[in-house]
From TrEMBL:
<protein>
    <submittedName>
        <fullName>TetR family transcriptional regulator</fullName>
    </submittedName>
</protein>
<keyword id="KW-0238">DNA-binding</keyword>
<feature type="domain" description="HTH tetR-type">
    <location>
        <begin position="24"/>
        <end position="84"/>
    </location>
</feature>
<dbReference type="InterPro" id="IPR001647">
    <property type="entry name" value="HTH_TetR"/>
</dbReference>
<dbReference type="GO" id="GO:0003677">
    <property type="term" value="F:DNA binding"/>
</dbReference>
<feature type="DNA-binding region" description="H-T-H motif">
    <location>
        <begin position="47"/>
        <end position="66"/>
    </location>
</feature>
<dbReference type="InterPro" id="IPR009057">
    <property type="entry name" value="Homeodomain-like_sf"/>
</dbReference>
<dbReference type="Pfam" id="PF00440">
    <property type="entry name" value="TetR_N"/>
</dbReference>
Length: 226
């Protein structure tokens, strides 16, 4: 199964980029190095000039792929949520138990992808990046226009897929999208808190008990809605 996902790529909205980064060796290196550099520097201090210097190319070469670093972050964010959806589809393909499928979805949201080998991007490093920087891709003045352009489609599709699993467990539950989007965001925020603001959480980095917390949150919320 993992070997299948290793070869599958995520199709990101083409309006996010100028040139498909996976159409050339430079573009692939651009994506790979940018993840590590964004982790090291943070979004605010990351520049295409620094990325070009790290890769060993001209800054103008980077601009052939993306208009700006915001679009690059949107690309990486979109790719991640699309890859999680692929993980969820393959991990639940042969299951009929709705509760088991929902638990797998929660595990993927809280810990990241189950299948972590990929020829294009390191999903583990990418999750680490998004833990710190994902909100900066969404919380901008341009978000409404970018939403209309479909820049967040992978995020929306994953949320809708998991919301449908919630309804499989309890068809009477009124707020499946609200519940799922809360878990999608707070699963990243709890990872952020554990590393940077530990007084706000009981969990340490890598603590698997977070899965237990979110399982309890989701299933008790669903069960209480009759």
């Amino acid at each position: 199964m993992e070997s299948i996902l290793q070869k599958i790529r995520v199709d990101v909205n083409p309006d996010i980029y100028l040139k498909d980064p996976f159409s050339s060796d430079l573009g692939k290196e651009l994506i790979s190095v940018s993840v590590d550099l964004l982790i090291d520097l943070g979004f605010e201090h990351f520049t295409f000039k620094k990325l070009a210097s790290q890769i060993g190319c001209t800054e103008s070469a980077i601009y052939r792929y993306f208009d700006n670093k915001h679009k690059l972050l949107l690309y990486l964010t979109s790719w991640y949520w699309g890859y999680l959806e692929q993980n969820l589809v393959y991990a639940t393909a042969n299951l009929t138990d709705s509760c088991k499928k929902l638990k797998i979805a929660i595990k993927i949201l809280v810990k990241g992808p189950i299948f972590t080998q990929n020829d294009f991007i390191d999903p583990i490093q990418l999750r680490r990046l998004l833990t710190d920087e994902a909100t900066k891709a969404i919380m901008t003045k341009e978000v409404d226009e970018e939403y209309k352009k479909g820049f967040f489609n992978h995020y929306n599709k994953l949320g809708e897929r998991i919301a449908n699993l919630v309804l499989e467990v309890n068809p009477r539950f009124e707020f499946p999208k609200t519940l799922v989007s809360t878990v999608m965001e707070s699963s990243l925020m709890q990872s952020y808190y554990s590393r940077h603001l530990p007084a706000l959480t009981e969990h340490q980095p890598g603590d698997d008990r977070r899965i237990d917390f979110f399982n309890n949150l989701v299933f008790k919320t669903i069960e209480n809605e009759n």
